[in-house]
Specification:
This protein is mostly helical. The chain is built from 13 helices and no strands. The protein starts with a helix and ends in a 9-residue tail after the last helix.
Length: 358
């Protein structure tokens, strides 16, 4: 399959993932308006929303991407599976793309730069092949066998995220419960988690407050902080990316941090990173990534320097050639002048015809 065909398939899948939950949400609002929704539907929506939103915030973001805490295999697998159930792409792709966002924030190389417009930052970038799957940003994650396994089985977990609420609905209320669970606990939940997460990329770079010094337009937005379980304190996060706690004030609600704290107390996780290095803007905790960026910059400088030396040598060669040409011309002129002077001298010493007569 060539590049154009791969892009077409990818965009088709994205359209399905974005549009179907949107249509389902519209129908769900219609059903709710006509009192067709049940307490079971709303319970499934709330439970699935909570676990998958935390799967993104705790699993994909704070644990995998920024290494904000350490956890044993079963705990890591649980949160990575929850993140996969959010339908936001495989784990490695999500993490690598986010690392690049930090490294290139608010530049042309930022996958979802707000400088290209609010819609682009929110979801338009998904249709422009901006996801990162290979290279330096993905390599650290590709060396973890558990992460690779969850990444490669993404569609299994994505499908289960729809079948589980549908199955629970069927167990409690038959086929009406099945369709209600699929609609509310599946498609509507996917829609809501999508747009709350995407709001961090768009809303939190366009509105809100930025109390911490950063090299980008990241901002704290209260409503996104609440709906995103703490992910909306985006300026705090960009000021100190590795910190596992994003809510730095007592009123900055951070449910993801509360869950991490609870797991720490239960000894399910350890080495929770809480330092706030607001004057050190990191792309990632991996020194390899930073070294790569430095090497690329050095390579570019060396290339420019080599080009400058080449241009200077060419200019010097041209000047030397011109100087030699000018010298040859002057030598020729001098030789001509000498010849002319010699001719005049010869004429002066040659006797005239009249001097031979007596």
């Amino acid at each position: 399959m060539n590049k154009r065909a791969e892009l077409f398939v990818r965009n088709s899948v994205l359209l399905f993932v974005v549009i179907v939950p949107l249509v389902a949400t519209g129908y769900a609002i219609y059903a709710l308006w006509n009192q067709y929704v049940t307490p079971l539907d709303l319970a499934l929506l709330g439970i699935m929303y909570a676990f998958t939103a935390m799967g993104i915030g705790i699993g994909f973001h704070r644990m995998l991407t920024h290494r904000g805490f350490d956890a044993p295999g079963p705990v890591r697998a649980f949160w990575l599976i929850m993140g996969s159930m959010a339908w936001q792409g495989p784990a490695i792709e999500w993490a690598a793309t986010h690392v690049k966002h930090h490294a290139k924030a608010d530049t042309e190389e930022d996958p979802h730069s707000p400088l290209e417009g609010l819609f682009h930052a929110h979801m338009g970038w998904l249709f422009r092949d901006r996801m990162v799957t290979e290279g330096v940003y993905a390599k650290p994650f590709q060396q973890d066998r558990l992460v690779v396994f969850i990444d490669r089985t993404f569609w299994v977990w994505a499908a289960l995220s729809l079948l589980i609420p549908a199955g629970i609905g069927y167990a409690f209320a038959g086929w009406s419960g099945f369709w209600g669970g699929l609609l509310w606990g599946g498609l509507v939940r996917v829609f809501l988690v999508h747009h709350v997460t995407w709001s961090v990329n768009s809303i939190c770079h366009a509105f809100g407050k930025a109390p911490n010094p950063t090299k980008d337009t990241s901002k704290n937005v209260f409503i996104v902080g609440v709906l995103g379980f703490g992910e909306g304190w985006h300026n705090n996060h960009h000021a100190s990316p590795r910190t596992a706690v994003h809510g730095w004030k007592w009123w900055q609600i951070d449910f993801n941090a509360y869950v991490i704290w609870g797991m720490e107390k239960l000894r399910l996780v350890k080495n929770v990173y809480r330092k706030r290095s607001v004057h050190v803007i990191e792309a990632t905790s991996s020194a390899k990534d930073l070294a790569f960026e430095a090497a690329q910059a050095a390579k570019e400088k060396a290339t420019l320097a080599a080009a400058a030396v080449s241009d200077a040598a060419a200019a010097a060669k041209e000047r030397a050639s011109q100087a030699v040409s000018d010298a040859a011309d002057k030598a020729g002129e001098a030789a001509a002048a000498v010849a002319e002077a010699a001719g005049k001298a010869a004429d002066a010493v040659t006797p005239s015809p009249q001097s031979d007569k007596v």
